[in-house]
């Protein structure tokens, strides 16, 4: 089943075309890695897909529900506020720099949205929170505040915060880029575990080995277009396009 | 004048000063938030009207504003003003003035919040009101506490301006007795009153700041 369909997405900032006619599909249970040089439009694609930015034209469909359709003038027309709210509950996003709520404890960061947005009872929310913290190996940090945690721990809390709402798709925007190199491993392990549980994920990443390991589908972007996509052994190990080869070669050096 | 009379008069003045202080804070702190919303509104007309109001409040003397509120209704519209209106006029003048200052402090605090906090809240499904009330405002309050403390301390001293429309607050009471008795003591008493008052204000605000500094 297709959880997400992006059709012919275009997005400009002023004169700069950042996304040029991108179409992408995400299957249930599939892990998609989006790779490419900085400035290639990966993050903008993610921001448009998660409704943080509005695309100029194109279609965005989650589980058959249209978040945006193409209007008569070719511009994207977004759904009503209430429909967008509903669609927003289908996905979660893990930010590069965590964006935890600093005035909330670790537990409160995780359970506040289930309680205030999904109206779950305190007991139910705590049960979900405890279970997620134990999965993240952070059971002893329940009452800590974000500033007391390492970057890797903060990122695990933010993954738990997103999972607490039971999203159908989880997006990651360079989840290890803000971390010290020795801390990236713990985040990659968490994502691997989620992949093993068949969590549907779309991950923008610079970690090529990780993408090869965990992704079912790799998308290589450059200058706002998808240059090539396919299985990791196709795109990363045997790229067909010159641009992809050049990018991967540069990384190895 | 007997000592007991002097003390009673000073005590009455003191109570008036405290009343002006308390009522002004109670009303201008929340009003300032409403003013901020207007100042940050997407509506061009509303935003600029509020901006004009703020520039007038900050750009003219509070003393003049108090006189305008008190004498304005009579001088402009020939309305009869009663004696009770005197104190009401003081409160209106102070609240309008301080709300403008608080509004600008709130705005600076709100605009200093990183956009990532809004985006995280949006992704988690919080409504705009929930985002502001649960995520933004609590953090803003901590950030703006030091400038708010400054304003509150200024307010304690500004209460003495109420004398321009003959409200017998601490300062007017003290200077009246001082000239009648040709004594410096009443003025000294007034000075000590303001000092102690502000000492308490600073102490309380510091306690609140400490209480809110459980996170970074």
Describe this structure in words.
The complex is a heterodimer of chains A (253) and B (216). Chain A has 253 residues and is of the alpha/beta class. In chain A, 37% of the residues lie in helices and 28% in strands. Chain A contains nine helices and eleven strands. Chain A has helices at 42-49, 81-88, 106-116, 122-135, 151-163, 181-196, 208-214, 232-237, 242-252, and strands spanning 2-13, 16-27, 31-35, 57-62, 65-70, 76-78, 91-94, 169-173, 200-204, 217-222, 225-230. In chain A, the strands form two sheets. Chain A has a six-stranded mixed sheet, sandwiched between helices. In chain A, a hairpin with a 2-residue loop joins β4 (57-62) and β5 (65-70). The longest helix of chain A is centred in the C-terminal third of the chain and has 16 residues, at 181-196. Chain A is globular. Chain A starts with a strand and ends with a helix. With 216 residues, chain B is mainly alpha-helical. Chain B is built from eight helices and no strands. In chain B, 27% of the residues are buried. In chain B, α1 packs antiparallel against α7 (170-181), α2 packs across α4 (85-111) and α3 (62-77) crosses α4. The mean pLDDT of chain B is 94. The interface between A and B is medium-sized, with 26 and 19 residues.
């Amino acid at each position: 089943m297709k959880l997400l369909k992006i059709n012919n997405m275009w997005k400009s900032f002023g004169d700069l075309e950042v996304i040029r006619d991108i179409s992408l599909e995400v299957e249930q249970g599939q892990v998609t890695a989006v790779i490419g040089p900085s400035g290639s439009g990966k993050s903008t694609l993610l921001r448009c897909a998660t409704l943080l930015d509005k695309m100029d034209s194109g279609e965005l469909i989650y589980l058959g529900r249209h978040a945006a359709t193409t209007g008569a003038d070719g511009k994207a027309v977004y759904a009503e506020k209430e429909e967008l709210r509903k669609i927003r509950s289908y996905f979660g996003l893990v930010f590069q720099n965590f964006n935890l709520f600093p005035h909330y404890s670790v537990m409160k960061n995780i359970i506040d949205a289930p309680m205030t947005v999904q109206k779950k009872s305190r007991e139910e929310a705590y049960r979900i929170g405890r279970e997620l913290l134990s999965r993240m190996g952070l059971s002893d940090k329940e009452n800590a505040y974000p500033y007391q945690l390492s970057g890797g721990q903060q990122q695990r809390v933010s993954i738990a915060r997103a999972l607490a709402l039971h999203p159908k798709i989880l997006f990651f925007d360079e989840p290890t880029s803000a971390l010290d190199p020795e801390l990236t491993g713990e985040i990659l392990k968490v994502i691997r575990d989620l992949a093993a549980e068949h969590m549907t994920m779309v991950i923008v990443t610079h970690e090529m080995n990780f993408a090869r390991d965990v992704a079912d589908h790799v998308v290589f972007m450059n200058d706002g277009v998808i240059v090539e996509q396919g299985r990791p052994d196709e795109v990363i190990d045997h790229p067909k396009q010159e641009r992809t080869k050049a990018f991967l070669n540069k990384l190895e050096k | 004048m007997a000592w007991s009379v002097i003390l009673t008069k000073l005590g009455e003045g003191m109570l008036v000063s405290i009343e002006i202080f308390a009522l002004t804070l109670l009303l201008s702190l929340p009003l300032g938030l409403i003013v901020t919303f207007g100042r940050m509104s997407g509506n061009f007309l509303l935003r600029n009207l509020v901006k004009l109001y703020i520039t007038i409040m900050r750009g003219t003397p509070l003393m003049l504003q108090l006189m305008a509120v008190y004498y304005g209704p009579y001088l402009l519209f020939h309305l009869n003003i009663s004696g009770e209106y005197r104190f009401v006029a003081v409160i209106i003048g102070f609240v309008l003035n301080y709300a403008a200052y608080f509004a600008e402090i709130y705005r600076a605090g709100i605009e200093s919040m990183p956009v990532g906090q809004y985006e995280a809240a949006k992704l988690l499904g919080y409504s705009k009101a929930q985002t502001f009330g649960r995520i933004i405002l609590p953090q803003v309050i901590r950030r703006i506490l030091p400038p708010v403390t400054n304003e509150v301390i200024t307010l304690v001293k500004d209460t003495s301006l109420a004398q321009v429309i003959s409200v017998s607050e601490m300062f007017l009471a003290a200077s009246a007795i001082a000239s009648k008795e040709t004594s410096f003591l009443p003025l000294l008493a007034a000075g000590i009153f303001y000092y102690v008052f502000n000492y308490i204000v600073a102490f309380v605000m510091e306690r609140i700041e400490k209480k809110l500094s459980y996170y970074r």
